Amino acid sequence: MPRLFPQEDASDVRRRYKPDVIKGDMDSIRTEVLDFYTTLGTEIIDKSHDQDTTDLHKCVTYIRDFAPDLDKSNLCILVAGALGGRFDHEMGNLNVLCRFSSLRIVLLSDDSLIHLLPRTHHHEIHILSSIEGPHCGLIPIGMPSSSSTTTGLQWDLNETEMRFGGLISTSNIVTGEKVTVQSDSDLLWTISIKKL
Amino acid sequence: MLPSQRKRKITISSLSFLFGFSFFPRRPLAMDLMHHSSTFLLPTIPSDHRPSLTAAQLRLCADGGANRVYDEMPRLFPQEDASDVRRSRYKPDVIKGDMDSIRTEVLDFYTSLGTEIIDKSHDQDTTDLHKCVTYIRDFAPDLDKSNLCILVAGALGGRFDHEMGNLNVLCRFSSLRIVLLSDDSLIHLLPRTHHHEIHILSSIEGPHCGLMPIGMPSSSSTTTGLQWDLNETEMRFGGLISTSNIVTGEKVTVRSDSDLLWTISIKKL
């Protein structure tokens, strides 16, 4: 955070962008970082006893269960720094999308945005061409798809079968402002993010 | 103690550079055993922290991978003249792809050096990496390729759809040994048709690892050598997959009813 605001005092920037919660198994956070945010009042939730779920999974669980009386019908969880680095971490993050398929979760990296398109719905994806695209893809994560249909892509699918080991839609191109997708299987949607 | 390695190196480049080399012969068993080892990660030149590209038998760049080789190779040898590095040491034998990413000056440079340029821009059904792997598979058909291993550098990071396309190449060419490399991780496919023994070189890889059922759930996977071993465990996206696991020794064994991706972290030197 301080590097994004080089003209400002680092401590001031960090105070402005204070996390409300730090949750996980605490095997990565540095001691001075933990102490800094603890003194600022950040809630620290140590789940080091739980080695069955990833840190992201733990955080999504927290959000899902947070303030149960709150209307979360429009909840969207944005995960920054979700890609790159270790590949197993990346796959663990994709799996969180699949495990919480009823929640809107968007994974972000410098280059791409990913979210799940559950098979239970038809999907309309509104493209903001000033900030995303044109490169995109649809990936049958976890299960093959016997039939997927799209509009708004350069290479649209038409009841097309997709599977790893066969066809998956990568290096596709969005052709307009709207993409529609329907499939018999959960698909990952990914679109490139434009450099500003 | 690892069996000795006959070096048959084929280099192809995907986003950057790919190279391959020979591997261990398979021993026939009730189900064939496949051995895996990452000796290609060992530096062969003390001053060079990268694997030796010069030992590769064939080097390909997949379209824009040539840009990366052109730009980045001289940075590895800052004391040397950039043109010399590009010309004499790290010239691709082939550049193949749909040619929509390679810069004109890069294409011209390698063309003048004699690199074979294979323009497949009419083929929009396969990725540039796929085209390169096909080239290798079909290259010199009389050559004994039983020990072929294809190494893909620059395979991860960047655009997510490219990454998925690269994983799909592993799945589409499941009978070939293909290893995807990034700065942080190494990935290869463990086909369900074999039991697998993965020899861990702890000086250069690990301890973090993972097993992922790509494309299809797995009803039953069994491992040894991991902190959290699988024991006829079911794995699927949306349920359990093995990530943030830890290798506990020098050997990991895996068998599964489904193709799995094996990944292990690469140590920073």
TrEMBL record, chain A:
It is found in: Cytoplasm, Cytosol. It is an enzyme of class 2 (transferase). Keywords: ATP-binding, Kinase, Nucleotide-binding, Transferase. It comes from the Eukaryota. Residues 124-187 form the Thiamin pyrophosphokinase thiamin-binding domain. Its main location: cytoplasm. It holds the Pfam family TPK_catalytic. SMART domains: TPK_B1_binding. GO terms for cellular component: cytosol. Its EC number is 2.7.6.2. One of its GO terms (molecular function) is thiamine diphosphokinase activity. GO terms for biological process: thiamine diphosphate biosynthetic process; thiamine metabolic process. Gene3D superfamilies: Thiamin pyrophosphokinase, catalytic domain, Thiamin pyrophosphokinase, thiamin-binding domain. Catalyzes the phosphorylation of thiamine to thiamine pyrophosphate (TPP). TPP is an active cofactor for enzymes involved in glycolysis and energy production. Plant leaves require high levels of TPP for photosynthesis and carbohydrate metabolism. This is thiamine diphosphokinase. It comes from Theobroma cacao (Cacao).
Automatic annotation (TrEMBL), chain B:
Residues 197-260 form the Thiamin pyrophosphokinase thiamin-binding domain. Its EC number is 2.7.6.2. Catalyzes the phosphorylation of thiamine to thiamine pyrophosphate (TPP). TPP is an active cofactor for enzymes involved in glycolysis and energy production. Plant leaves require high levels of TPP for photosynthesis and carbohydrate metabolism. One of its GO terms (molecular function) is ATP binding. Its main location: cytoplasm. This is thiamine diphosphokinase. One of its GO terms (cellular component) is cytosol. It is found in: Cytoplasm, Cytosol. It comes from Theobroma cacao (Cacao). GO terms for biological process: thiamine diphosphate biosynthetic process; thiamine metabolic process. SUPFAM superfamilies: Thiamin pyrophosphokinase, catalytic domain, Thiamin pyrophosphokinase, substrate-binding domain. Coiled coil: none annotated. Keywords: ATP-binding, Kinase, Nucleotide-binding, Transferase. PANTHER family: THIAMIN PYROPHOSPHOKINASE, THIAMIN PYROPHOSPHOKINASE 1.
